[in-house]
């Protein structure tokens, strides 16, 4: 019984000391990461990436929109089994819908 109590006491002391040391190490790492994130060079790099992404979206957006629109129309035609060009040529809306 003494052996079991000594083991549990040792485990409890080890746990307390280990968590305290672990928390200190965690705080140290968190502080270093925060300092790195706030570094002006890092923020400048992030701003550059955001600007390039924004420019790319503005440049490719219309092209992507056309491709998506075409894919949706093709899928719609495949599901309905018709060709939207025929109904539009007849003066109606695509797939025989009305206004």
Q: What would you call the shape?
A: elongated
Number of domains: 1
- What's the number of extended β-strand segments? 0
Q: Cα-atom Rg, whole angstroms?
A: 32 Å
Structural class: mainly alpha
Largest sheet: none
Q: Kindly estimate the percentage of residues that lie in beta strands according to DSSP.
A: under 5%
- Summarize the helix and strand pattern as letters: HHH
Number of H/I helices: 3
Q: Unreliable segments (pLDDT under 50, ≥5 consecutive)?
A: none
Mean pLDDT: 82
Distance between the termini: 87 Å
| Oligomeric category | single chain
Task: Estimate the helix proportion, in percent.
Answer: over 70%
Protein name: YtxH domain-containing protein
Region (Disordered): 68-99
Organism: Cellulomonas bogoriensis 69B4 = DSM 16987
Describe the model:
The chain is an all-alpha fold and 99 residues long. It is built from three helices and no strands. The protein has helices at residues 2-37, 40-80, 84-89. Residues 68-99 are annotated as: Disordered. It comes from Cellulomonas bogoriensis 69B4 = DSM 16987. This is YtxH domain-containing protein.
């Amino acid at each position: 019984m003494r052996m079991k109590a000594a083991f549990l006491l040792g485990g409890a002391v080890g746990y307390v000391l280990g968590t305290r040391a672990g928390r200190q190490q965690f705080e140290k790492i968190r502080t270093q990461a925060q300092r790195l994130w706030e570094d002006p060079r890092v923020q400048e790099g992030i701003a550059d990436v955001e600007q390039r992404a924004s420019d790319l979206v503005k440049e490719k957006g219309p092209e992507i929109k056309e491709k998506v629109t075409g894919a949706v129309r093709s899928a719609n035609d495949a599901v309905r089994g018709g060709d939207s060009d025929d109904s539009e040529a007849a003066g109606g809306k695509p797939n025989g819908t009305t206004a």
